[in-house]
């Protein structure tokens, strides 16, 4: 399933953390310049993490994630703390907000960020009322923790905070890798194939299609777009053959049939695996399908919750193709939302959706979680190409991914 174009998922995500009533929501409002988050003197007003996209000078669009205090208490408080901690999986940078105090909760957050290799800035909030002791600031500076003093009341410190964020945000979060423009030499073109069938959304293109075309425009490349049936006509009218054909996963076998065998070809979903995740890892993951046996458990994971349609890609088509391809009696289960099932280790394979609505950080965290448990992961597009017998062709333009797939395929077949 694909929805609206989602530039938000390509923007850096910055989490705002701190004890209850440390001024996290007022800091978000300070950044936003208006009252978005409910600011209250009563501790623990923020429940679920609140996401807000803001155009920050010099940083561009940034998604700020305002969270509940991680020192929250009680049954509900525990749930809020869990959600706060879960949000660490998706952010590229953490702002640790404090009114000047420092204790176990702050140390705990620094430790968590260290473990996740997540960069962090200490934001001393309410600096108009009280400043943190100089010895504390020195001690933290000695540990390499960047600090910024702000006052949301006096409107001071915003420039320093933006500068610190600019310096500390990982390069990749500020300039995500191109989707495909780096694959196509200057002066060459790309042929996009977009089937308009019953599964296509009315009146618009799906997010990965729009994103791929926009990337070609950014790269000053020539793009053409057709439906699968028009591939031969397009090749006929074009004076020079396109360098690459990009098609919808569900039309990949048709496009392979219609396109000349020496024309490089891949799918939007494989491109999503490339920019959102780790294409070699997910290509190796797809090879697991070759070794699936009766009773093996497969998790199909989708980020967005929706009602399954009769021809639903995740709920219906992929399970049917899997059963037909493997001939095995598989235990297929489905996961929806931003979290994996708690017991991931019981699965032989996770087949993940394209992830167009989540950022790369969250997808990489998901891959790492599965990797730690030794569970291979692939995505819809890579799996569909394999299930249609055209994966080697779809990966030809990505030599590292093709090699990873071939190596894992030999191992999977040997284990069978
Ligand atoms: S994130 Fe996944 S489920 Fe949601 S629209 Fe994108 S591909 Fe579909």
Q: Helix tally? A: 16
| Distance separating the two termini | 32 Å
Percentage of residues assigned to helices: 25-40%
- Proportion of residues in extended strands: 15-25%
Largest sheet: 6 strands, mixed
Rg, nearest Å: 24 Å
On the 0-100 scale, what is the average pLDDT?
A: 90
What is CATH's topology name of the largest domain? Rossmann fold
Number of domains: 3
Describe the model.
This protein has 416 residues and is an alpha/beta fold. It has three domains: 7-174, 3-Layer(aba) Sandwich (Rossmann fold); 181-269, 3-Layer(aba) Sandwich (Rossmann fold); 278-415, Rossmann fold. The chain has helices at 24-32, 74-87, 104-115, 134-142, 158-168, 171-174, 207-218, 231-237, 252-258, 268-276, 279-286, 313-326, 360-372, 380-387, 391-395, 399-415; strands at residues 13-18, 50-56, 60-66, 93-98, 119-124, 147-149, 189-193, 222-226, 244-247, 264-267, 297-302, 331-336, 349-352, 377-379. The strands form three sheets. A six-stranded mixed sheet has the order 2-3-1-4-5-6, with helices on both faces. Strands 8-7-9-10 form a four-stranded parallel sheet, sandwiched between helices. Mean pLDDT is 90; it is low at 1-6. The structure holds iron/sulfur cluster. Iron/sulfur cluster (SF4) is lined by residues 1-3, 302-304, 353-357.
